Amino acid sequence: MPLDVILLVLFGALLHATWNAIIKAGSDKSLDAALISAGGAVSALPFLPLLPLPHASAWPFIGASAILQFAYFQLVAAAYRAGDIGLVYPLMRGCAPLLIAATSGFILQENLSGGALVGTMTISAGVLTLALEARRGSSRAIILSLANACVIASYTYVDGIGARISGNAVSYTLWMSLLPPVLLFSWAASQRGAFAVVSHVRRNWWRGLIGGAGSIASYGLALWAMTKAPVATVAALRETAILFALVISITVFKEKASIWRYVAGVVIAIGGLVLKLA
Question: Which residues cross the membrane (predicted)?
Answer without folding.
Answer: 6-23, 57-80, 87-108, 114-134, 141-158, 178-198, 205-225, 231-252, 259-277
